[in-house]
Amino acid sequence: MSAYQALYRKYRPQTFDDVSGQAAVTQTLKTQIITGKLSHAYLFTGSRGTGKTSCAKILAKAVNCLHPDNGNPCNCCEACKAIDSGSCMDVLEIDAASNNGVDNVRDLRDDAIYTPSQVKMRVYIIDEVHMLSISAFNALLKIIEEPPEHLLFILATTELHKVPATILSRCQRFSFRRISQEDIAARLQYVAYQESIDLDDGAARVLARLADGGMRDGLSLLDQCASATTGELTAERVYACLGIAGERKCGELMGYIAAHDTKSALELFNRLYTEGKDLSAMLDEMACLTRDLLVLKTAGGGGISMFSGVASDKETMDLAKKLSSGELIRMMELLQTTLAGFTRASSRRMDAELCLVQLCQPELSLDAKALNARLTRLEEQVKSGSFVAAAPEKKQQPPVPEDLDDRPPMPGDEDAPPGEEELPVSRDDTPVGFWSELCGNVRKELKPPISGFFVATPNAPVQGALVGDRLELRCGNDFTAQMLDRPDVLEVVSRKAGVMLGRPVRAVAVDMSAKPANNPRLEQLMNFGRAHSDIVTIKK
User: Fold this and answer.
1) Cβ distance 297 to 317 under 8 Å?
2) 534, 291, 259: which is closest to 377 by C-alpha?
3) Of 124, 157, 176, which residue sits at a domain end?
4) Domain identity same for 495 and 443
C-alpha cells in the first residue's frame, strides 16, 4: 500500500499550461524555449505558494526535454522522468536556508564547470536565495555573470529586497503575482472532482479567500477539511473544521458594533469563544470586513471588485450606511493593534473583549481619533437626514425681576402679541458695547474680590457672550469659574443683563480651560448642542 501524498504535491503543475494565474510569466518562458533565446540566470520572486518552484522545475525539464511540445516538457522522455523522480544528478535543487555559507557556494561553483552527464544542461535551482550570506553572494557573482554554456541558474525568493543589486542585475527577473480567488476556487473544484470530494461552491470560495493568493495554501486547507469530514463539504463545515467564525457571524458582530449594542456584541463573542473559535482568526475577519467597508465608503460602487470576500455585497453595503469613514479608520487601527499585541498577551480573551467594548463605545476614549469618529458619524447623520430637531417643549418662564415690570410684552408671555416664538440660536449674538456696559453695572453691586473679575479688556479673566437668552460667563480657568458659579453672583449678572436688554437673561459660568482647543468642528458641535439640548432627537 503506497503512502498518502498531500494534494499540493500530487497536483503540482507539470507543464507551463497547468500553472494557474501566471500567464505573463509562463508565456514568456515558453516563447524563450521555442526560439532558443534562453537566459543563463533567472530570478523568480513573489509571495508563497504562487508557483515559483514549480515553474523552476518545469523550466529545468523543458530545456532538457527530448520532445518538447510548444515550449512545454513532454513528461514522457527519459530526461523528464529522471528530473521528476529526482534521480537526475545534473538538475540540483538547493535550499539556501540550510546551505547559506560561502563554502557551500564554492563547492557548487567547483562542480558547475563540469559538463552534464545525463541531460543537455546542468540546472541549479536555489530556493530562498535571500538566505545566503553576503560572502556567499559574492562567491556566486562571477559564475552567474559568465557561466559555461551548459549551465543554467534559477533563483527563487519571497523577499526580493534582501537580494543584492549585483545579483539582480545579472538575472532575468520574473514577478509572480498573487493568484486571484476565482483561479484558486476553480483549481480547488478541479482537484476535488479528481479526488471525489463533494466540494460546495461556497466552501470553495471560503478556502480561496483563506488561501490569500497562494495555491499551495488553498490545496492544503482543502486536504485538511476533506479529511476531517464526510459527505458534502460546505462553508459551515469549513468554518467548523478551521475554527473560524465565518462571514455570517462576522457580519452580525459588525452590525452590533455599528448599532453600539455592547451587550449583544459581548454575548455573541462569548458564544463564539465557547464554541472554540480562534480569537486571532475572528479579529482578522473583522479587520478584513472593516477594510471592505472602508473601500466601499471611499471608492463607491467601484470598490466592490476589491472586496476580500468576508461578507456579501448586500451585507457590506447595508453596514457601510451605518458607519462613517472616521469610525472605520479608528476600528481598523484598534483591531490591528489588538492583533499585534496577541503575541505577548497573557489573556487573549480579555484583550479581545476590551477591543470589542471600545469598538462599540467610542465615547470611552477621549483621544483625537475617537472624537473624530464621533464627529464624522454625526456629520453623516445630519447629511442623511437621520438627525433632526423635534418640536420644542414649552417651558415655564423664569420670574421677571421687579425692575422689568414696565417692559413691553415679549415672545413667550401670556399677553404677548401673536407671532412665532424665537428659538435660541447657536451663534454668539452679543451686541456691541454690551459687555463693557454690563461690567460697569455689575461692579457697582458686587463686592471685591468678585467685582474685580468683571473688566472689559481683551485679557480679562472673564468674557461675556450672549447665546440666545443665555449669557455665558466664559472663564479662562477653573478657579474663576468656581468663584462666579454662585447663585448670588449669577442672580446679579442675570438681573443687570435683563434690564439692559429688556428681556429675561440667564447667566451661567463656563470653564473654557476644560474645552478642547484648536478644534473648530468640535466648538461648532458644542454650540449646537447647547442651543438645542432640549429639542434634538435622533431617528432610529
Assistant:
1) no
2) 259
3) 176
4) yes
- Structural domain boundaries, residue 186: 181-242
393: left (phi over 0), alpha (psi -120 to 50) or beta: beta
3-state secondary structure of 537: strand
Q: How distant is the alpha carbon of residue 54 from its chain centre?
A: 33
- Give this prediction's pTM: 0.63
Q: Are residues 236 and 272 in the same domain?
A: no
350 and 256 within one domain:
yes
pLDDT (0 to 100) of residue 454? 86
| The three grid cell numbers given for residue 444, joined into one nine-digit string | 457697582
The closest of 89, 97, 98, 156 to 123, measured between CA atoms, is 89
In Å, what is the CA distance from 278 to each residue of 241, 246, 348, 356, 454?
11, 11, 10, 15, 64
Beta bridge partners of 133: none
DSSP E strands in 5-129: the ranges are: 41-46, 91-95, 122-127
Nearest to residue 92, comparing CAs of 70, 111, 77, 75? 111
Q: Mean pLDDT per segment of 10 residues, for the chain of length 540 residues? A: 80 91 92 91 92 93 90 91 88 87 86 86 92 90 86 92 92 92 91 90 88 90 86 86 81 87 91 86 87 80 58 65 83 89 83 90 73 71 59 54 51 49 47 84 84 82 85 85 87 88 88 62 55 46
Return the CATH number at 188: 1.10.8.60
pLDDT at 99: 82
Domain count, the chain: 4
3 state DSSP class of 525: helix
Return the bridge partners of 473, or none.
464, 509
Contact between 148 and 112 under an 8 Å Cβ cutoff? The reply is yes
From residue 243, how far is each of 216, 251, 281 by CA, in Å? 20, 17, 8
CB 137 within 8 A of CB 170: no
Looking at the fold, whether 154 and 94 belong to one and the same domain comes out as yes
Whether residues 428 and 489 fall in one domain? yes
Phi, psi values for residue 23, rounded to 5°? -60, -35
> For residue 416, is it within any domain?
no
160 and 210 fall within a common domain:
no
Same domain flag for 456 and 362: no
Q: What is the 3-state secondary structure (H, E, C) of 360-383?
A: HCHHHCCCHHHHHHHHHHHHHHHH
As given in the structure block, the three cell numbers for residue 416 are: 404677548
Same domain, 185 and 62: no
Strands 462-467 vs 151-157: parallel, antiparallel or unpaired: unpaired
> How many other CB atoms sit within 10 Å of the CB of residue 343?
8
- Across the beta sheet with 506-511, what order do the strands follow? 462-467, 470-475, 506-511
